[in-house]
Amino acid sequence: MITHIMDIVPPIDPRVLEEELQGQTCLEPLSRGNVKLYVVDGYKAPSVMREIGRLREIAFRSGGGGTGQACDVDRFDEDASLGFRQLICWDCEEKEIMGGYRVLWGSVCRMKADGQPDMPSAHLFHFSELFVKEVLPLTMELSRSFIAEKHQRQSESLRRNIFTLDHLFSGLSYLTGMEKAQYVFGKVTFYPSYPTEAFSMLEAFFRKYCLDTERVVPHQPYEVPAWADADKVLIHNDYREDFRALRMAMTQKGYYIPPILSSYVKIFKHITTFGAAVNHEFGDVVEMGLLAHVDDLIPNRYIKHL
User: Fold this and answer.
1) Cα Rg, the chain, nearest whole Å
2) Span 134-169, pLDDT tens digits
3) Other CB atoms closer than 10 Å to residue 301's CB: what's the count?
C-alpha cells in the first residue's frame, strides 16, 4: 500500500524531447499527418523516458492509481539487459507525447531463479511451466499503457483518446508482425472507483467464455460476488451476442466497460482471461490478465501490419 505521494516532476523541454527522438526508431509507414509513432529505448533517451514516466504517473493518479513516485520510471524502463522498449504516439505540431505502451518480446525475456519471467506481470501472476516454455517465447507483453491526461479532460477528449488508442494499436500490430510474435499478453486496469457490481458483470461474461485457470494464476485473486442476473442476460450462447447483451445491461445501470478492454474484444475474435489480481504497489488497483492470438484478429486495417 502506498503511504506517501510525491509531487510530480516538472515537464521536459519539448525541444529536448524532439532532439532525443531523432535517435529513436520512427514507424514512418504509420504516420498520420503531424502524428508519428516512435519505438524508444528508455536508457538511450533519458529525457523522453522521464517525460513518459511523468505523463504515466499523472494519468494513473487521475484514475485513482499510480506509484506515488514523482515519476513513474522503474528498472524495466532503464535496464537495457531486460529488453523493454516504449511505443509512443508523438504530436509533431504540439511537440508532446499523446500516449504509449511499454512492450517486451518474450523471446528475449530474462528468467528469474524461481523460473518465473522477469517482467511486470510476474509480481501479480504465476506463470505455469507450460506457458513459459510454449507461449512466452512467441508473446509480446504489454504494460504501462496510458493516454496523456490532457487528452482525457478536454472537450474533444473522447475523439483524441480514441484516435491515440487506435494509433497505438496500429503500432502494436506492426511490431507484432515485425517480430513474428503470435500472442499479445497484457493487463486491463480497474481503478478503486470501479463499481464492484460492474466488475461482477464482466467477470460473469469472461468466466463463461474466456477464463483459463491453469496456465496463468493470480497470486492474490480479486474476488467479487456472482452476478445474480447472469443467467437472465447471458442467454445467447454466442460470444458476440452475449457481449452486446452485457454492454446493454451495464449501460442501463450507468456502468461502462474500460475502453481498452472494449478494444480487445472488438478487434479479436476471442481473448483468454486469467482472472484478476490486486496490485498493492499501484494504488490497490485490480488488474485482469489477458492473452490474445494474432490469428484471432478480426479482418480490419490492423491486419495489414502483420
Assistant:
1) 19
2) 999 999 999 999 999 876 655 555 677 778 888 998
3) 10
pLDDT at 292 over 60: yes
Q: Is residue 9 part of a domain?
A: no
CATH of the domain at 148: 3.40.630.30
Looking at the domain assignment, is residue 185 inside a domain?
yes
In this prediction, residue 2 has a pLDDT band, given cuts at 50, 70 and 90, of: low
Question: What is the number of H-type helices and E-type strands within the chain?
Answer: 10, 10
Q: How far is CA 234 from CA 208, 218, 223, 245, in A?
A: 9, 25, 20, 7
The verdict on residue 18 lying in a domain is: yes
Work out how many domains the chain is built from and give that number. Answer: 1
Domain holding 22, by residue range, is 14-305
Residue 48 lies in a domain: yes
- pLDDT of residue 85 exceeding 60: yes
Q: CB-based contacts of 212: which residues, under 8 Å, 6+ apart?
A: 272, 273, 274, 291
Least Cα distance to 229 among 213, 216, 244, 246 occurs for 246
